[in-house]
């Protein structure tokens, strides 16, 4: 059975091709468990704190991260989330609060940061 070839790329003179393979073999194959992603809501009190993931600035709270998780819901990688609260005046100090996700822990649904620390909420 011949495959069907589709191709489309706007604005280019050469068109890449994609080959659709014939129907799958009748022998069932169990896929190996793979890491998927789970959303983690990052919030702070007060809102608007800078968020760093693995030391890279990704935005300000509130925001949603996508964390790789195993089939059983554990974190697939080590992920460090830091939230930086910037003091609004000289009478207060700026603070950075950190939370680390490890493969030994279930991925939280939400992490809420305050200048005093971080609190996780699982599903």
Description:
The chain is built from no helices and ten strands. The chain has 123 residues and is mainly β. The strands form three sheets. The protein has a four-stranded mixed beta sheet with strand order 6-3-9-10, with no helix packed on it. It has a four-stranded antiparallel beta sheet with strand order 5-4-7-8, with no helix packed on it. Strands 1-2 form a two-stranded antiparallel ribbon.
Supply the key terms.
123 residues; single chain; mainly beta; 10 strands; elongated; 4-stranded mixed beta sheet; 4-stranded antiparallel beta sheet
Q: What is the helical fraction, as a range of percent?
A: under 10%
Beta-strand content bin? 35-45%
Strand count: 10
Indicate how many domains the architecture comprises.
Answer: 1
Oligomer: single chain
Termini Cα gap = 47 Å
Number of helices: 0
Poorly predicted spans: 1-20
The structure class reads mainly beta
Q: Can you list the strand order of the major beta sheet?
A: 6-3-9-10
